[in-house]
Amino acid sequence: MGGFMLQFVLRLLWRLRHGATCYPSFMEQLAPNAIAVESRVQVDGKVVTSRGPGTTMEYAVALVEQLYGKEKAKEVSDPMVMRSNHADEYVITELNPVEWTFDDCPKRVRERKPKKAKTKPLLPCCELRSCEGHHRQTPRPVGLTPAAAAALSPSSHSVTTPDAQTGSAIPGVSDLILVPIANGTEEMEAVIIIDILRRAKANVVVASVDDKLEILASRKVKLVADVLLDEAAKFSYDLIVLPGGIGGAQAFANSEKLVNLLKQQREANKPFGAICASPALVLEPHGLLKGKKATAFPALSNKLSDQSEAENRVVVDGNLITSRGPGTTIEFALAIVEKLFGRTKALEIARTTLFISP
């Protein structure tokens, strides 16, 4: 909440002397003007307040209830698959556990030599006696937004490798996560996944499957990708994560380039995942769930060939992770953080966002 808005709310609370809550670090500022209450969502008369990113869904549902009544709030919240015990630690169902690790060496696109390579390939770090002297700054690739350029720029353990199709130099980057979006993508799922992973300091590239960077999400929210998928597909990734939304999932399923990236990910035994409609509409029909346990949006879980774990909120089976809907997205993203960076980091983010009790 900005300073001006906070002062406005405080003046309003002072007049009404209502109970209120906010992010824990600012609770003392409430004291002179209102009754400070340590609740996740506080409704007092016409004043509704909440604590942080992890309480936002509860806050939004409370606003719906105040405006339109309990029945409408239930109609909105039930399909979101929200948690009943909001402050509790999240739980994941893990089968066939394997360690997820980032590849410290830069990654190459599949070996398909161009007719005339303009740049001689450099060996990955693991094939060099010493990495010193081989790292170099690479100009920002044409057409990338600043966010994508930052994510795709060489890290301290990267070298320049050629694009397998054009032979032009592109930066090989480790610790890279791809999150595709498309018209009809579920905006809460996309934004929460990106947000939580970036809080964990992961390099996240948001790629539009459509022909322009800006997409119109399922609830008419406009999202702007870092890069088009055509550009993003020149790189390989440590993890690919699909948000849901019926329209977005259908666009993913129809994207040959994205499906090929997912198939390469599975063939390389590298992590990939999906939430909501995407496990049922993207992974299942393309054979990416073969031999795997998964979950999906409740109304679509009957499309899964194996529904034995479909009632669980987050399911990890080896290098695959799936989840159910908007209300499970924070748990889904935290589970990814836990697999990549450890439970301590995941719980740290869960507490600072107020998803669980601090």
Explain what the structure shows.
Belongs to the peptidase C56 family. The chain folds into 2 domains: 3-80, Class I glutamine amidotransferase (GATase) domain (Rossmann fold); 93-102 and 175-352, 3-Layer(aba) Sandwich (Rossmann fold), CATH 3.40.50. 31% of the residues lie in helices and 16% in strands. The protein is built from 12 helices and 16 strands. The radius of gyration is 22 Å and the shape is globular. With 358 residues, it is of the alpha/beta class.
Helix content: 25-40%
Number of domains: 2
Give a short account of the largest sheet.
Answer: 8 strands, mixed
Q: What would CATH call the architecture of the largest domain?
A: 3-Layer(aba) Sandwich
- Label the structural class: alpha/beta
* Annotated CATH homologous superfamily of the largest domain: Class I glutamine amidotransferase (GATase) domain
Widest beta sheet: strand line-up: 5-15-16-14-13-8-9-12
Can I get a quick summary?
Belongs to the peptidase C56 family. 31% of the residues lie in helices and 16% in strands. With 358 residues, it is an alpha/beta fold.
